[in-house]
Amino acid sequence: MIKVEAIVREERMEDVKDALRAIDVRGITVSQVMGCGTQLGYTHRVRGSKVAMNMLPKAKFEIVVSNEDWAEKTVDAIVRAAYTGEPGDGKVFWYPIDHAVRIRTGEKDIEAITPAPLPVVEEE
């Protein structure tokens, strides 16, 4: 199992979600975060004075996939969707995950991250 984390421009969040959906990636967590990379934010004028805006709004994606092939597909989809060519496009990180547990069923490892059938709810 591999965890892919991507930090991208907030305005590219929907494009990245669509790209991941298009390759059938499920189990996505998205957080709105603040941060800066090598560009160190930007300057903004407030009441005539320059003010450094060091922390910029970003979207952070967290995805766990079953193997190296899925990790490559996931990273490629994110990079294509998030790319603008300007500083601040973001970063993608991936690293191995040793174990996972699906809380609802107790399934472990690969079974914990594969789509599980939803419980049947009987209508009255």
From TrEMBL:
One of its GO terms (molecular function) is ATP binding. Pfam families: P-II. GO terms for biological process: regulation of nitrogen utilization. One of its GO terms (cellular component) is cytosol. PANTHER family: NITROGEN REGULATORY PROTEIN P-II, NITROGEN REGULATORY PROTEIN P-II HOMOLOG. This is Nitrogen regulatory protein P-II. It comes from Tractidigestivibacter scatoligenes. The lineage of its organism: Bacteria, Bacillati, Actinomycetota, Coriobacteriia, Coriobacteriales.
